Amino acid sequence: MVNPGGSSQPPPVGAGSLSWKRCAGCGGKIADRFLLYTMDSYWHSRCLKCSCCQAQLGEIGTSCYTKSGMILCRNDYIR
Questions:
Q1: What is the pLDDT of residue 42?
Q2: Does 1 map to a domain?
Q3: Is residue 25 part of a domain?
Q4: Is residue 52 within 8 Å of 74, Cβ to Cβ?
Q5: 20 within domain boundaries
Q6: 49: CATH
Q7: What is the domain extent for residue 69?
Q8: Cα(34)–Cα(45) distance, rounded to whole angstroms?
Q9: For residue 5, is pLDDT > 80?
Q10: Contacts from 24-28 at CB under 8 Å and sequence distance 24+?
Q11: Is the sign of the CA dihedral 32, 38, 39, 40 positive or negative?
């Protein structure tokens, strides 16, 4: 995920690292094979959703947008 105006690269994670990442959406440990990183936080792919339409952003593209602290899909950002 890309966060315009913010850091788009997550901090490095060492190979074989046992440190679990916490999801910013649900607070749970991320043990999934894939995780998302935006707004300086990690997310389960099912938890990163558009604040307006609730679309799962990991499924609809490779970008997300922020405005007034909300995470938005492209369509809602443009609107």
A1: 94
A2: no
A3: no
A4: no
A5: no
A6: 2.10.110.10
A7: 33-76
A8: 7
A9: no
A10: 25/49
A11: positive
The tens digit of pLDDT for each residue in 23-74 reads: 999 999 999 888 899 889 999 989 999 999 999 998 887 788 999 989 999 9
Whether 7 is in a domain gets the answer no
Q: What pLDDT is recorded for position 10? A: 58
Q: pLDDT tens-digit profile of 11-27? A: 555 445 557 899 999 99
Long-range contacts of 48-57 (CB under 8 A, 24+ apart): 48/1, 49/25, 50/76, 51/76, 52/76, 52/79, 57/1
Number of domains in the chain: 1
